[in-house]
Amino acid sequence: MARTAWALMLICLSLLAPAAQATQIFEDSMAQRSLACTHCHGAGGRAAPDGYHPRIAGKPAIYLYNQLLNFRDGRRHYGPMTQLLAPLSDEYLLAIAEHFSALQLPYPAPVPHKSSAELLERGRTLALQGDAPRQLLACAQCHGQRLTGMLPHVPGLLGLPRDYLNAQLGAWRTGKRRAHAPDCMADIAKRLQPQDIEALASWLAAQAVPAGSAAAPSNAPRGAQDAAVGCGTAKAPQRP
Amino acid sequence: MSPSRPKAKRWRAAALSGVLISALIGVLLATTLAWQGRDEPARDPDSSRSAAPADAQTVQQGAYLARAGNCMACHTSAGAPAYSGGRGIETPFGTVYAGNLTPDLQTGIGRWSADDFWRALREGRSRDGRLLYPAFPYANYSVIRREDSDAMFAYLRSLTPVHQPNRAHDLRWPFNTQAALAFWRALYFEPGQIKVEAQADATLLRGAYLVQGLGHCSACHSARNALGASNPLDLAGGLIPMQNWYAPSLNSREEAGVMHWPLADIVALLKTGVSARGSAQGPMAEVVLHSTQHLSEADLQAIGVFLQRLPEQASRLPEPAPPTANRAGAALYDKRGVQGYGEQGQGVPGAYPALAGNRAVGMAQPVNLVQMVLHGGYAPATAGNPRPFGMPPYIVDLSNQEIADLLSHLRSSWGHAAGAVSAVDVQRSRAQPGR
């Protein structure tokens, strides 16, 4: 009996040991300050496996800053975000945005999904060429030729789960997700049909993120990207 | 069967109709009074506009006072221009929408005079004589001095006009009638009812003026009755209606009383949101962010002195049930909580408050603890503490039972002897988040 008890205790102790080793030590850093973010968005903001809490690492800082403002100020809606951000200042939100923007983490391979070739082709065409008769700009027009985003505030569209893209495009279309005026993305999304959204989300989620995937600088010599200039962004707070 | 029963029944019926009839008479009387109030002598609608524009110093003083009163918190809808109104204040009777305070002629206070503004603060009446809902805390504001009212009015007049029509309140019958309001006021409101006690000390007087008057702390820190009325002088704690946060008693050491705190810690809490003895969380974090951090050192000290001298009262909360050790909660704490707060619940100075000896942990009313674990939270990002540390929201990954176990463990550890938290307590806050 006593031997069993000892054995049990040893097993318990050995189970405890790795947990004790994994205990993080407190550090006075932005990573420590933003544990409230990475709790849902994954370590370093690499995205949660649930497909719902997106990657925030490596996105353009001003894009992230705008999303933080949008959640805090009621242009995007997700209870936990709203309540967390309510007591935070513009300056701090910018610092949090810059912290995650600077984290360059590898992207996972796209999750395979059974979509018809026809659907994927429709998605590819919409993303890269748009649909002129319906006055639909191509995604590439504003989000960069490689769809990896344009600095300072246009996000990349690759490396995101299909469900997340579907949900976001749907939310733009119904007005549930909004941005600062002029809200160009809302204008475009309202012209999308549900099947366009499905095609776009399916094709975008199936693309691997190219190497060197950082957002392109805004002064790249591409006239078309001007379409995004000034769309959906707040002025960043002045630094002393 | 008792033979006296039919008689008792008759009596009860008679008493009931008596109550109903007197209530009806009360409503009629009150309605009459309310309508009498509407027959105000007509004023020159342009009188305020013809007045000379206020000097910059008055406008600046008005901006400061509006901060002290945190007017913007209710009179600004999320993401909308400051003071353009439209924010819904949820009450048990429906939603009251705050008005547009910008000087727009059609939709704001562009046609108001300084007299109209003063009367709204003191008497809770709109420019047209309409009675205002007490979500606008005019019982507190009725002590505001005329020159302060004028300065705030001058400041509001200096804002860029925003055309934003006021949204109609969405209240249930009979609360949506002026008669009901008149009835309510007959019971609970008398203009100028708070008299700041004649204390010799100018600092105390100033503190009382800011706490009881302009700062309207009692709007949250006192209990409301079934008709939503509270005593503007009471600071003994109350559940904030519809928000699932408890504003703790400022009279009790067991809750949020600061009679035993050094003045510097009270000032630090209001100025920066954090102090050696506790931090502001939830609705109070927003009060610090938008209001108290902007107050002068002298005003913060006055508030501190006033709070230190509040009469001490035992907590009004019921005695908690005896604590019970919770093994599941202890295991969860070892897995999740110990990283931030330490084995002895000691916290990390400057980052994570100690749980051991923390009044919020041991308070009989656990609703704030539930909020913190469910929704996480940051102390306010203030000029004095610009980059606070945050608590993650566990709403996505812990069940109601797990959170209840974890909190029950904390409430029976390190000398705490507060009652267990149930999964139902957690569900209540999950189903109806605070914001």
Any overview of this molecule?
The complex is a heterodimer of chains A (240) and B (435). Chain A is mostly helical and 240 residues long. Chain A has a domain at 117-228: Orthogonal Bundle (Cytochrome Bc1 Complex, Chain D, domain 2). Helix content of chain A is 47%, strand content 0%. In chain A, α4 (61-72) crosses α5, α9 (162-174) packs across α10 and α9 (162-174) runs antiparallel to α11 (194-206). Chain A is globular, with a radius of gyration of 21 Å. Residues 7-23 and 219-226 of chain A have low confidence and may be disordered. In chain B, a hairpin with a 4-residue loop joins β4 (238-240) and β5. Chain B contains 18 helices and 9 strands. Helices cover 43% and strands 6% of the residues of chain B. With 435 residues, chain B is mainly α. Chain B folds into 3 domains: 47-188; 202-308, Cytochrome Bc1 Complex, Chain D, domain 2 (Orthogonal Bundle), CATH 1.10.760; 327-431, Cytochrome c-like domain (Cytochrome Bc1 Complex, Chain D, domain 2, Orthogonal Bundle), CATH 1.10.760.10. In chain B, the strands form 4 sheets. Chain B has a 3-stranded antiparallel sheet with strand order 1-2-3, with no helix packed on it. In chain B, strands 4-5 form a two-stranded antiparallel ribbon. A two-stranded antiparallel sheet of chain B has the order 6-7. The radius of gyration of chain B is 24 Å and the shape is globular. Chain B has helices at 5-38, 47-50, 56-68, 71-75, 114-123, 138-141, 146-157, 178-188, 202-214, 218-221, 263-272, 283-290, 297-308, 327-341, 359-362, 367-375, 400-410, 423-431, and strands spanning 88-91, 94-97, 170-171, 238-240, 245-247, 274-275, 278-279, 377-378, 390-391. In chain B, α5 crosses α7 (146-157). Chain A binds chain B through residues 19, 23-24, 26, 28, 30, 32-37, 39-40, 53, 72-75, 79-80, 82-89, 91-92, 95, and chain B through 77-79, 273, 285-286, 288-289, 334-335, 338-340, 348, 351, 375-382, 386-397, 433-435.
